[in-house]
Amino acid sequence: MTGQQLRNSILQEAIHGRLVPNTLQPGELTARELLNDILAARQKAENEAKGKKAKKLTLSKIEEEPWELPEGWCWCRIEDIFDHSAGKSQNSSQKTIGKIYQYLTTSNVYWEGIDFTKVKEMAFTEEEYAKCSAVKGDLLVCEGGDVGRSCIWPYDYRIGLQNHIHRLRPVSDINVKFFYYVMMLYKSVGIIAGKGIGITGLSAGVLKGTPIPLPPLSIQHSIVSKIEALLPLVEAYDAAQGELRALNESLPDKLRKSVLQEAIHGRLVPNTLQPGELTASELLNDILAARQNNENETKGKKAKKLTLSKIEEEPWELPEGWCWCTLGDLADRQVGKTPERHNAAYWADGKQPWISISDMQDYGRVNATKERVSALAEKEVFAKRISKKGALIMSFKLTVGRTCILDIDAYHNEAIVTFLIPDELADLKMYLFWLLPIFTNASDSKDAVKGKTLNKESINATLIPLPPLSIQHSIVSKIEEIFKLLEK
Question: What DSSP line would sit under 35-49, residue for residue?
């Protein structure tokens, strides 16, 4: 249950008469008797104001009661117990006539009270100010903006009102706070909802005709006291719920990062080499030899001699059998391109998938792209150096370290790099797939532009803790096992 649901539940219990004992004080009026007294007070005020022209007032008829009330309560309408008035229109042709007074708009009225950050001024005649203003104890209800939002004017001085605020002034002795809480519930559960075309509003007729439960006066006071004792607890509960919600939302990601950190420090799985297995240093030398053979076959006499990087300072001590290397030691790379946008021939009738970072999901697989390039672009821009299905790709500009596996043959843009890892090193590919986001985001790029950005040099220099192959396989299996559990 959320804090709002708990608050609504308390208010619901209150207006149904289940929050406090419904015991009248000796000699106390029932709600019906209280309502008749209020009617008499309204009639007296009407007679004094209009003399012989005063109309005879009657109580509203409620054909169908919304729910059954406890003994001693009764149903009425807002107009039965409150004197209603609205504020002055800002567009009135008489707005410059009269004395300048401060006035409230809907942007000043909140459930928690009045926001005085920005209070406007307008001219009121004496008659307008008497009618279009609030005094202490008036219930203010927004007609526009957040329709139905309410508060009680708590100050000893009078304040002007703009026409999008309804002023409800108690005619006789009632606890206005009880009806403030009724409005709060009605608003929250949708009983009060503005109607209109274009602008949502709460008309005077709709507001005045809204049915409300009326308890005896002592029970009104008891209900308000109980609500105000409970609401601080609801606020504390709501805050705790918010903290729990934030923790639940962040916990899986924090656990994933923790798992990956354990993995790269050699603490996620047992570090036991298989009989006769190569250590990481021996594996690294074999990888270098294979890359050198490929370089020789591709470039012949022009082939450069490859060497392993020198690691001046190891970030942390690794388990026995592991070694430090750089990403440049482990794999050759292929950076993508973006064909010229203004050359329609590169994009028209495109059939070959072309990947941008928006096509990639963290630790995901790419099986579809938003854009495709033409055969002409394949030939002239990419020289048909396509990234093959099963390849490991990574973003390295702005969104740094997002890794994906290709489920399709595809080209990609210049913010993405393909790592050319042979099939026999599938465990190394998946080890890098899971852990490159940790390594690359720990790197400092001196050439960063517009946020985090890596370049050829910083990619090559990224430090990698390399385990033996069997331990790479164990780490990848354990990560996938744990991440599946976290997804659940």
Answer: HHHHHHHHHHHHHHH
